[in-house]
Inverse folding.
């Protein structure tokens, strides 16, 4: 696989073309951002840790029958993925009240929900990723009715697989964000699954092990990501 021109650079990953038009390389950087890119830092070894965690989680999801864009990890910070036409919405699943849900509804963080909450947000930093619903998605043509249903179903399926995985590692899967895209007439899970895009709490102490450590200046950010990797059994050496 030959790494070609840069296609796109996001807040924490850079996407490269390859010699295969249907494949891209995701490069996980050490850059860390919060609050729609307002707070920025470089955290040593975060790119490598996220690339390893993402590869491990995506493989577990594929084993469970979920269509993901992930193909293989090819270097410390690089992975090959299927090229997708990304849908402009973010899908969030919540098992425990935290973050923007706590703020929006005035409910204290930590309430375990009786059933998962599913939410859509528009992917738009300048607008601070506003919450949207199915009728906005249909009215503005961001996705079709069948795609909306597939994203909802796949998000719940991911939750089922990952709740079990994290439970087994003594970690609560509080919430997470997913993105989907189209290729070959199908919908695929795209983007990444790393502690940058989910909330993970130690099951007994509720210590935060995710990007909230960066957002809230709690320190030991990459150390916590490494702790997540160690507990999941993610290989940390090649
Ligand atoms: O901020 P909020 O509580 O809505 O975030 C819900 C979940 O989605 C969190 O795990 C957060 O890390 C993730 N998220 C994300 N990217 C965004 C917005 C939220 O990864 N742009």
């Amino acid at each position: 696989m030959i790494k070609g021109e840069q296609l796109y650079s996001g807040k924490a990953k850079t996407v490269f073309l390859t010699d295969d038009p249907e494949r891209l390389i995701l490069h996980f950087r050490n850059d860390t951002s919060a609050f729609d890119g307002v707070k920025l830092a470089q955290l040593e070894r975060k790119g490598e840790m996220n690339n390893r965690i993402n590869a491990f989680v995506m493989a577990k999801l594929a084993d469970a029958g979920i269509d993901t864009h992930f193909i293989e990890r090819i270097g410390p910070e690089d992975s090959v993925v299927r090229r997708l036409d990304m849908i402009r919405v973010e899908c969030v699943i919540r098992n425990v009240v935290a973050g923007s849900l706590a703020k929006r509804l005035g409910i204290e963080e930590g309430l375990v929900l009786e059933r998962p909450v599913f939410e859509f947000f528009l992917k738009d930093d300048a607008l601070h990723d506003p919450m949207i619903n199915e009728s906005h998605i249909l009215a503005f043509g961001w996705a079709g009715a069948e795609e909306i249903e597939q994203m909802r179903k796949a998000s719940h399926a991911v939750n089922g697989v990952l709740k079990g995985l994290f439970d087994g590692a003594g970690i609560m899967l509080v919430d997470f964000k997913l993105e989907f895209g189209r290729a070959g007439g199908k919908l695929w899970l795209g983007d990444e699954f790393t502690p940058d895009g989910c909330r993970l709490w130690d099951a007994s102490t509720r210590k935060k092990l995710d990007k909230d450590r960066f957002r809230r200046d709690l320190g030991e950010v990459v150390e916590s990501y490494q702790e997540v990797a160690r507990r999941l059994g993610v290989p940390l050496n090649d």
